[in-house]
Amino acid sequence: MPHKNIWTIEKIKDGFEKFFNTYGRYPTALEIDSFDFLLSSRQIQRKFGGLPNLRKILNLPIENYGSGEERSSISSNVNKRGRNYENIIYELLKKNFDEKFIHIEKPLLNENLMLGYSSKNRYDFYVYAKPNNFAIDVFGTDNSRGVKIIMNIKEKKYIKSNSRLIVYFIYFGKNINDADIISWINKKTNKFPINWIILNFKEFQEELKKYSSYKAI
Q: In tens digits, what is the pLDDT along the chain, a chain of 217 residues?
């Protein structure tokens, strides 16, 4: 993240636009701290007197997401879309594996922690399967650029996790050019770990044919 002294209005506005291009809306106060292309909410409070004032300076269409119908609408739509994608994956997993071997929101293995787990970050799913276990991260976006931005953010989240575990990043979206995503991955200067596999839902369905399920006794 850039140092706090180099945050200009232009760079802040660019960060808001990156979020908008990814999610189709501007961030709420709770989402700003988890988005690497924006300064922290504490910095916003100190420099601009709060997020509503900053939105006015940037001429964003909504000045206060934290009240009334706008807050309820955003929260409902985001949560509904996220849950829907996860439910689709969960139903697919249950068709292919014994449900007892499907773990939801399992903490990431972290090789740098004595206890072996990170309590903050979690896989959406962790599956015990043959010939090897694997983890899943599910997300949705509106275009190819969104996939790239989200994966760059997730790279920081997962980079210290177990380097041997296969992790599937499954994306959903109507306007995503899959060939463009593959080209971007191949041309990326700093390559993703070889155990990270980025797929759309249809490709993941085919990928599951490589695995078989354990059976509970």
A: 444 457 888 889 888 888 887 766 788 776 787 777 888 888 888 888 888 888 888 887 665 555 554 444 444 444 455 568 888 999 999 999 999 999 998 887 654 444 444 446 788 899 999 999 999 999 888 788 888 888 888 887 777 666 688 999 999 988 899 999 999 999 988 899 999 999 999 999 999 999 999 987 6
* Domain residue extents for the chain: 4-66, 80-213
Protein fold of 80-213: Trna Endonuclease; Chain: A, domain 1 (3.40.1350)
CB 27 within 8 A of CB 16: yes
Q: How far apart are CA 190 and CA 186, in angstroms?
A: 10
Q: Using an 8 Å Cβ cutoff, are 169 and 139 in contact?
A: yes
Residue 71's nearest CA partner among 28, 33, 26, 17 is 28
| pTM for the structure as a whole | 0.64
What one-character-per-residue DSSP string does the chain give?
---GGG--HHHHHHHHHHHHHHHSSPPPHHHHTT-TTS--HHHHHHHHSSHHHHHHHHT-S-S-TTSHHHHHHHHHHHHHHHHHHHHHHHHHHHHHS-GGGEEESPEEEBTTSTTSEEEEEE-SEEE-EES--EEEEEEE-SSHHHHHHHHHHHHHHHTTB-TTSEEEEEEE-SS--HHHHHHHHHH-SSPPPTTEEEEEHHHHHHHGGG-EE----
